[in-house]
Amino acid sequence: MDRLVKTQKYTFAFSPYEFVLESGEKLGPITVAYETYGTLNQRGDNAVLILHALTGSAHAAGYHTPGDREPGWWDPLIGPGKVIDTNRYFVVCSNVLGSCYGTTGPASINPRTGKPYGMDFPTVTIRDMVRVQKRLLDHLGVKHLIAVIGGSMGGMQALEWAVTYPGYMDCVIPIATSAQLTPQCIAFNAVQREAIMQDPDWCGGDYYPGPGPVRGLALARMIGMITYKSDELWNRRFGRDFGGPDEKCFDFSGRFEIENYLHYQGDKLVKRFDANCYIYLAKAMDLHDIARGYDSLEEALRRIRSIVICIGISSDILFPPYLLRQLVEDLLFLGKRAKYVELKSSHGHDAFLVEFERLGAILRQFFLAIEAVAV
Amino acid sequence: MDRLVKTQKYTFAFSPYEFVLESGEKLGPITVAYETYGTLNQRGDNAVLILHALTGSAHAAGYHTPGDREPGWWDPLIGPGKVIDTNRYFVVCSNVLGSCYGTTGPASINPRTGKPYGMDFPTVTIRDMVRVQKRLLDHLGVKHLIAVIGGSMGGMQALEWAVTYPGYMDCVIPIATSAQLTPQCIAFNAVQREAIMQDPDWCGGDYYPGPGPVRGLALARMIGMITYKSDELWNRRFGRDFGGPDEKCFDFSGRFEIENYLHYQGDKLVKRFDANCYIYLAKAMDLHDIARGYDSLEEALRRIRSIVICIGISSDILFPPYLLRQLVEDLLFLGKRAKYVELKSSHGHDAFLVEFERLGAILRQFFLAIEAVAV
Q: Is it the case that residue B61 has pLDDT exceeding 50?
């Protein structure tokens, strides 16, 4: 069964001067958890980089054990004969810097103290994540990327890739994202961080090895979940259905089904994600601005040499489609090769993790075009 | 100076059997805080009822003292010669049941215990609020209303008025609201309640006379505030401006201006509003459904005899314009007199508290039409 995969690890920056973060702070050693699917060719130029969103992991495709019930998070799109065809491409996905799925982050052990970093972990940025990914690709022998693809925070990384390593890829495909995080998104992140940090069990981030701020993290996820879906989806899925006998609706312990769903999602995340990592990754998103360090957004965009295929989601309230539409207009104005495509869906922001058929159809045409060029 | 007004009080339901809430629970005595502007005519039929939103009060117009810097919340629209002309109309605004601005609510003294009700206060609904308002109007000698007007939770009351007392008014004008609260709005209310109830200082609602869950209430307000404005407004007002030197952006204590604004709004509300009241009013909104107790929404709408002027706000993410547009279509289908008008604004849901000129222009034409009919 060739769909069995294993998360691997690569550690670098043993010297504290080896990896300087965008903030100027030094971090090391850095371990990156990653998975690969397919085989790298001899020239090292058939690679595709997949980038995950806020609570995602390196496990994008395949199964970890033969009894696994859940495949990787983008499995319908990645595999032999699938849209991102592992018979042709060497597909890489790594857990981002600051996360808790194997890559160094606030829940990792600080070698200086022997205890988890907690809030002593330095602030990381989307650009830092991308630079760590570049180190991994160098280590793997990748010389050139055919495509860099990701949604939401993954899309932020894709755009940062295009600006930071302009000659390194043919195409970047950011989905449901923006070139600079909008104030509304910062606002939603701010209240989520606040929910975690207000929980007395957060203890200033120093809660290890305890469970930490489980109620605060669940609340943060509940807030986030509202922004990941859409009004239309909620109306169709739950409407005003009440989770119990109708007369209980006057009772404060009673919950509408939409409330039950949010609580379910909150409780589910708490079992699999670290609260400090959530705070750090939300901050990294707030700091997302491909123009930082350049004189202007235009100067940053001028650096781009790859094709940029932007996929907006029609019902996305977090990253409304106008954001990527505007980016494509800006890129075209600068003479860049860019295209905007809209994924029509009522699933809201999360559509890129749900609408595999529609997203696959959009991605397929671009991979066909890439192959036509490659022939 | 005829613009000086005083909040007055009316108390009724001294017998516990006098006022049965929609939940079946009894509540009494009930005090209602209210203000009136203008003079009731002899027939008692020149009254206009103004309904406030979540954290509003009876103080809709005028000044409380000669030195007052802030007039009532809808002052630009209500007064002598203004759109809602107090030379012609007897304007009434009362604080809703369950609030903390003079009307009986969770922060009021429970006569049975001599202590504030807290969570022993019964669940109240929008319909209960309206029935309390009707008792007040009866007490004031009002026989007929020319118009019933309100935005957001005030709009919910306006629609409930149209269904509960169909022959009592010429016109209802709900703004930025819906006939039944949507699951997305329930979701946003649920996380706000959760923020308050997770605060250890909430103490199960038993925090009087202490300040109570100030951090939780502030967080609830911050979340709410995001939904009351719009992406477009935030982009224009704050963009990605950072509240301090740029290099501090990597610091967790650093805040973007949008974050500063949310914190400011959160802290401001805490000084003026009670956390339990916030919880109860959010629950009342969740329960808002003009069809409850009727066989269907259609049956409820069939009861309406007044003109219904629905004003949606173009950038409202909490009550997207389609909600009131759909309601008007339903009313017209049933042969009712209804009209949908859209207030074009980038201010989001809060536009009805900000865009006085545009809203005034819309309201003016309807008041002119009403007067034409009256002549």
A: yes
